[in-house]
Amino acid sequence: MLNRSSTASFDAHCLSPRWQEPAIGIVHLGIGNFHRAHEALYTEEAMLVQTGDWGICGVTLQGDVSKRDALMAQGGLYSVVERGPDGVRVTVVRSLREVLAMPFDRARLFELLADERVRIVSLTVTEKGYCRDPQTGDADFTHPGVAHDLAHPDEPGTVPGILCAGLKARRDAGQPPFTVLSCDNLSHNGDALRQAVCSFARRLDPALAAWIETHVAFPSTMVDRIVPATTDADREAAQSALGVRDEVPVPCEPFRQWVIEDRFPAGRPAWETAGAQLVDDVAPFEIAKLRMLNATHSTLAYLSMLAGFETISDAIGHAALRKLIHAMMAREIAPTLAVPASFDLAAYRDALLNRYANPALKHRCAQIAMDGSQKMPPRILSTITARLDAGQPIERLALAVAAWFTFLRGRADDGTRYAISDPLAARLTRAAESADTPEHLVDALLAVSDVFPAALAGNPALREALVGAATKLASGALAAIEEYANLD
Ligand code: CS2
């Protein structure tokens, strides 16, 4: 099994023999596959160019002791299995030094958050992990976890609660705060997190909220790498390359990108040496990625769940679906994006289509289809709103939303049943299952105000486009794909 004391067999798969074990300087909340194939790798590469104590302590917030135990049994080591059209490359990553599982390891987490040597707390907790009220952007005070953390601020379990408790410890000890770095797919992710944390702190201790507002940096980032769930094929690929067993490898595509707003008062790894782009304003990159990549990913996922394509590469291999996705980006999404002149949107679009076609990745549509209530607003509804405001057509985008609605009935066109995984699953499936016509389906789901703000839900052009698309989908996704691929 991989471990830190016997690297001989897999030395050739480490990035460099010149590795010095760093002390922990980053606590990362949400130690899923994405972080391990992205920030942890950038951080390792950066430390190889410029030494520094930027070891990572990863935290799982779901009480997943099996993940902690599997990683700790390997001393935090794991391999990244990069799968490209031309083959597989396996790299052992060493920057992860410790793994904790909340709530079991709370004392150790708070010891680290209070420790001045921890200068960054980063996050990949997915959209729902922010516990935001979708209407106001403040922490959602009706969320049971948030209510618990307000009543028991010393035993927090949510992101706003944990960050406030950690920042309070710094302030009370007269120490500088850590920088808080969101790496999730939210629009303006730094500002969104700052608002959730400060609104939570205001309820608890207004002076703490004021201190956070003045002293804590929440830079925004755009993160990009397609990272599926681990399968046995990845364990086998790692073992055959390394000669030892890795129980927790991470598969990913060769491509990766990280654009970071450069505001780190307490310092940061030299991530730019590993290819990260440090910029003054991330917004154009972030919005382009959400609206082009994540939006078309979700569209492919919902249409595929209905039509029966298992992976993104299967879906994009279907000629009409590829044509539809190309047109959706070219005709409906790209024209809404204000990007710098140097950002070539046509090249970006074509590169995305090539990344989707990677046959080695096996990115399952069911994985992307999760949490639609959290994903649709920033990925697709933002573009729909911009186009409706400008009086522009939205047919293809409406097909994407109608595909999500139809997906929420819980069965594919061939009758296969699947589960809906979403924080709003109960409400969404009740609405979808009770509808007996496309009109009812659209009306029942437009009424979910956590997803559709009143102004959007009441827009007649949106309703008409959704009813049209839902009607087509009712007679089969493949036929709807053909028809929408050939729109003028
Ligand atoms: C995907 C993303 O699962 C999803 O919803 O759209 O995880 C996507 O693979 C990444 O954002 C790519 O950077």
Automatic annotation (TrEMBL):
Tell me which Pfam families the record gives: Mannitol_dh (PF01232), Mannitol_dh_C (PF08125)
In alphabetical order, the GO MF annotations are: oxidoreductase activity, acting on the CH-OH group of donors, NAD or NADP as acceptor
The reply on keyword Kinase is no
Q: Species name for this entry? A: Caballeronia hypogeia
Report the superkingdom from the record.
Answer: Bacteria
Ranges for domain Mannitol dehydrogenase N-terminal? 25-272
**SUPFAM superfamilies recorded for this chain?**
6-phosphogluconate dehydrogenase C-terminal domain-like, NAD(P)-binding Rossmann-fold domains
- Which residues constitute the signal peptide according to the record? none
What UniProt keywords apply to this chain's record, in alphabetical order? NAD, Oxidoreductase
Protein name as it appears in the record: Mannitol dehydrogenase
Output the GO biological process annotations, alphabetical, semicolon-separated: mannitol metabolic process
User: InterPro entries, alphabetically?
Assistant: 6-PGluconate_DH-like_C_sf, 6PGD_dom2, Mannitol_DH, Mannitol_DH/Oxidoreductase, Mannitol_DH_C, Mannitol_DH_CS, Mannitol_DH_N, NAD(P)-bd_dom_sf
> Start and end of every Mannitol dehydrogenase C-terminal domain?
281-470
